[in-house]
Amino acid sequence: DGGITQSPKYLFRKEGQNVTLSCEQNLNHDAMYWYRQDPGQGLRLIYYSQIVNDFQKGDIAEGYSVSREKKESFPLTVTSAQKNPTAFYLCASSKQGLYTEAFFGQGTRLTVV
Amino acid sequence: AQKITQTQPGMFVQEKEAVTLDCTYDTSDQSYGLFWYKQPSSGEMIFLIYQGSYDEQNATEGRYSLNFQKARKSANLVISASQLGDSAMYFCAMREAYGSSNTGKLIFGQGTTLQVKP
After folding, report:
1. How many other C-beta atoms are found inside a 10 Å radius of the C-beta of residue A89?
2. φ and ψ at B86, to 5 degrees?
């Protein structure tokens, strides 16, 4: 079955440690996105990528980094520079184009202690 | 800069009645796409419906319809015949054109929590 896989579902890390969240898709989509969601809030865009080897900052990129070396994969690293990393992280992908809907993974809930 | 505003943090509706969730947007582009997503308590994001900026007809998808008023920059979601399973958070989103592929960033509003009463 085609879809987007985020792993792990729950992640616990100590303060000051970098952590990488995985996002893999087998939908053959060119565009991929990372969002952060805080409790009861909307989705805020961290980074997005239109195509392999290219990505752009979203509205809250500080303290995060990404890579897009393969079409299928768009990992997100939460660095120690991110002041408040505890949140729900959602990855999405879409075909290229203005009117194409995004498909989402199940999300990773990151807790930093 | 593009912006999405959802002014209703929470809404209640009686089962089997219709409900309208408000969404206004701000953009200087002529070409853009508008989307609605549903997020149940499980956290998954479910795509519901979309509207293109040049579409003259309002989009419909089953019990969902999008009331698109371009001059007012609004794209309200109408859910007809509400069901208990419609209780969830609903997000409005917009994409502007960017680059040769037109695949600009997809931004979301703050969301509206809908509760359907039996």
Report:
1. 23
2. -80, -10
What count of other Cβ atoms lies within 10 Å of the Cβ of residue B12? 11
**Residue range A49-71, pLDDT digits in tens:** 999 999 999 999 999 999 999 99
pLDDT digits (tens, 9 = 90+) for A91-101: 999 998 888 89
Cβ contact B60:B111 at 8 Å: no
Cis peptide before A8 (omega within 30 of 0): yes
CB pairs under 8 A between A and B: 75
* Each residue's pLDDT tens digit, B62-101: 999 999 999 999 999 999 999 999 999 999 999 987 766 6
Mutation test of the interface with chain A: which of B107, B110, B112, B115, choosing the one with the most A Cβ atoms within 10 A? B107
Q: Are B103 and A43 in contact (CB < 8 Å)? A: no
Among all chains, which residue has been given the structure tokens 């958070």?
B89
Of chain B, the percentage scoring pLDDT greater than 90 comes to 84
Q: Which of A101, A102, A106 sits opposite B44 (nearest CB)?
A: A106
